Amino acid sequence: MIQAANERNPVPPQPRCDWRDVAFALALAIGTVALGAALQLGRIYGNDGAMLADWTALPERAYHQYHNTLYLPAASLVERVVPPTLLAAADDPLWVAKSLSSLAAGIGILFTFLCCRWIGIPRAASAAGTGLLAVSPVAWFFGATIEVHSLHFAVVAAAAWVTVVAPWRRPGVALAITAVVFVVPYLSHQSAPVLGPGWILWVQCARRRVAAAFSLRALFGIGVVLLLALLVGHMLVQWRRGLGFGADFGGVATTVGQWRRPFTWAIVGTAVVMPLGLMLPLVAVASCRRAIDGWLRATVLVVQVPLAACVVWWGIAEQGGYLLGPAVLLAVAVAAWLATLPHGMSVAIAVAAIAGQAWLGQKCIRDFDGEGFQLEERAARVRTGLGEHGLLVSCNDNAPNVAIWFRGVNEINLLGSLAHEVPLDTWWSTVQPVLAGFGTVDRFLVDVSFRLRPDLPDRVRDGMLRLESALRADWKVTELPHPSWPMWLVAKK
Predict the structure, then answer these.
(1) In which region does residue 391 sit, left (phi positive, over 0), alpha (psi from -120 to 50) or beta (all else)?
(2) Which residues of 180-299 form beta strands (DSSP E)?
(3) Residues 70-92 pLDDT 10s
(4) Each residue of 267-297: pLDDT tens digit?
(5) Nearest Cα to 324, choosing from 488, 189, 459?
(6) How many CB atoms lie within 10 A of CB 451?
(7) Distance of CA 393 to the CA centre of its chain
(8) Do residues 221 and 2 touch, judged by C-beta distance below 8 A?
(9) Per-residue pLDDT tens for 310-325?
(10) CA quadruple 403, 409, 410, 414: dihedral positive or negative?
């Protein structure tokens, strides 16, 4: 079924790669890891970040049925093999999650460079295209952030490299290898099905390194095999979550439906333009260059355009995180374009673009981190108000449990109970027994930073305001203002 289309398809010479390519790849990877570690965020991005920080720092609280099922096993591996002070401060309790993000970014960049080289792009252009991705706002940000996107990037880049180096002169063997590795991206992020159509074309690019192109009939068969691989990935995720080894897509559909937001033009900038930075115009130029292999140009467009459209339709910018996984292909396209230019022009464009991209990348991190909500500041305020033992009541998804810093502090986070669509009166009836239990302590803290969060649902604000009224009626409340972490010290009257 898998055969060459005909002898009219030119077969490019097979690229030679040696120890210098490995050295270049390692150097780029180490540099990327260092960039992520140097500008690690002091705050949490999104809502998953707080959970991941919580689970990795307090393994007894870990939720192993998390839908991005590869994250916690990867974190456990980092904890076993990486020295705690290699990529984080010696006293940083979040070192595992932070180290995982930086290391994953480096691994993704390593395989990105190797993809460029194995597809036949010269070393200098490969380094330039890869470097442009490494310092992009999206790659650098998630290399410095506790989140899942950096790990997904590493997995997709590794799968792309395995695909391109598979023995495509023996297509049956190569397709089997590719199908196996194509299962893994589903385990690192459930957006993996969007990769499917583009991956068929990436296989064609890999094939054309060593032999005549596949026929359209063969590509259809390859698509069926890759679809089955994605199905296996989904079933493994279901099984890992305790939902059985089945093909039920109801959970994914529910998530998409519940979280979708109305379209605004601003999402185009925040989800696509800003995160990719200078890669976007360069990829646009590369996509129009006939000097670049048509299959490669088609691969980039078929992967990135539908993915960007899905993100814009869904309405969640995620700092461009959903585009990071297959961004390896953007780097390949830029590198291929640079290789078609005169040497002097290529060097000038590469230097200017990387410098500009690096400025955008570091600005993105510094601007976000400069908004406040630093986790160490929160821990310091808890220590000032309670010492290292006591009770903290909160309603946060932008901070992990304070027990990470002080094992003697019990934090009761009410956000989870307020997130459920139950009537507020019903929720309040479940909270009152908890309030009654507070009578066993002389004082406790309430984190009221939810007031600074316009993105939280109205029901969260309404529920917490009802709690505040009850506390003011029965307790002595002392307000402790702060730009990011305002709190109440609540004591018996």
Answers:
(1) beta
(2) none
(3) 999 999 999 999 999 999 998 89
(4) 999 999 999 999 999 999 999 999 999 999 9
(5) 189
(6) 13
(7) 29
(8) yes
(9) 999 999 889 999 999 9
(10) negative
